[in-house]
């Protein structure tokens, strides 16, 4: 019996190998790999997601759609795409990275070609900076060798050691190849709260004029953002070679969220859970949050961050 079952197993394995050799695409169909079946940019999808799911971020929405579309439609980019997203906590920086990933990789954030680093989790000890540098460079090189269309997200960039930021520089520069590897099709996304306060000041001043928030333009926040990021020794990005050499393609400001956006987040969360829309509940959840400045109570202190748990409480 043992001989027969071993024979059957060997036979099946041989048949499977033969089958995969004849129909290799079947293998790629089931197993994620660096091919168009798994990686292809959906501009319409990204546009629709940004319009319907990202609330209160008209400036970020526009820049991201243009930047990602331009890059993904260019067959011969001269450097990887580098986006630096800035803003107050809970305003959608991680969320937007997810929307980008969803519209490039079939498996979205679960794709093995999307890599997330968080300063405090992956690089916690300043004393081990040299080890982190080697590991990080090794990781980036290995993954881009495996798939040119890799995406690297660095969260809490403002808490990252400037030396470590500098170690990324060769990969995001204009080199055609480094040790035989081209990094030009990769995407790097940096997330940070640096500049969040100055973006908030500008948005508050604008709010006080009584104008429509949508009229706030990139040029209105650009100056305060760049001053806060580049001239602030605590911003992490301060005086790094990424800034000095102009290697960041787009600085993207995220505006602080107002009460009405928090209501939208609560409604979206209900929909995501398959619950019937309940504006009263959404208002109740939104009014539980804290708003600032104290005098006007305009912006949510935590953005949309605690909506999920607040909703759990009421359900
Ligand atoms: N502008 C927004 N539109 C829609 N949903 C949002 C928005 N901002 C935040 N959210 C919701 O709140 C959750 C938390 O937001 P997210 O993690 O993107 O914030 P963040 O800006 O990255 O914050 P932090 O700086 O603290 O990391 C998201 O998963 C999303 O569900």
UniProtKB/TrEMBL annotation:
Question: Which GO terms of type biological process are on file?
Answer: nuclear membrane organization; protein localization to nucleus
Q: Which UniProt keywords apply?
A: ATP-binding, Endoplasmic reticulum, Glycoprotein, Nucleotide-binding, Signal
User: Which residue ranges does the record assign to the Torsin-1A C-terminal domain?
Assistant: 257-314
What's a Pfam family in this record? Answer: TOR1A_C
**Where, per UniProt, does this protein localize?**
Endoplasmic reticulum lumen
Per the record, GO CC terms? endoplasmic reticulum lumen; nuclear envelope
* MF term (GO), any: ATP hydrolysis activity
Where on this chain does ATP bind? 87-94
Indicate the family of this protein: Belongs to the ClpA/ClpB family. Torsin subfamily.
Q: What is this protein called?
A: Torsin
Q: Which gene encodes it?
A: LOC115542104
């Amino acid at each position: 019996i043992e001989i027969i079952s071993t024979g059957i197993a060997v036979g099946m394995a041989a048949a499977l190998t033969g089958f995969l050799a004849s129909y290799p695409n079947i293998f790629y169909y089931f197993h994620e790999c660096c091919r168009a079946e798994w990686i292809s940019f959906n501009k319409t999808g990204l546009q629709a997601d940004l319009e319907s799911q990202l609330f209160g971020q008209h400036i970020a929405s526009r820049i991201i759609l243009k930047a990602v579309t331009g890059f993904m439609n260019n067959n011969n980019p001269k450097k990887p795409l580098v986006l630096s997203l800035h803003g107050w906590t809970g305003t959608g920086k991680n969320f937007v990275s997810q929307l980008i990933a969803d519209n490039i990789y079939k498996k979205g954030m679960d794709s093995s070609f999307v890599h997330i680093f968080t300063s405090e989790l992956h690089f916690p000890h300043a004393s081990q900076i040299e080890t982190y540098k080697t590991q990080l460079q090794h990781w980036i090189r290995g993954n881009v060798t495996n798939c040119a269309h890799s995406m690297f997200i660095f969260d809490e960039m403002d808490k990252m050691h400037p030396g470590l930021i500098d170690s990324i520089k060769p990969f995001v520069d204009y080199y055609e190849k480094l040790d035989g590897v081209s990094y030009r099709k990769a995407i790097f996304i940096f997330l940070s709260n640096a500049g969040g306060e100055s973006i908030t000041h500008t948005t508050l001043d604008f709010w006080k004029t009584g104008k429509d928030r949508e009229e706030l333009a990139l040029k209105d926040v650009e100056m305060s953002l760049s001053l806060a990021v580049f001239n602030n020794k605590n911003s992490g990005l301060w005086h790094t070679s990424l800034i000095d050499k102009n290697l960041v393609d787009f600085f993207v400001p995220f505006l602080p969220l107002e009460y009405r956006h928090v209501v939208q987040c609560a409604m979206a969360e209900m929909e995501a859970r398959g619950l019937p829309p309940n504006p009263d509940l959404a208002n109740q959840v939104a009014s539980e949050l804290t708003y600032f400045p104290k005098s006007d109570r305009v912006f949510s202190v935590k953005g949309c961050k605690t909506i999920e748990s607040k909703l759990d409480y009421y359900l």
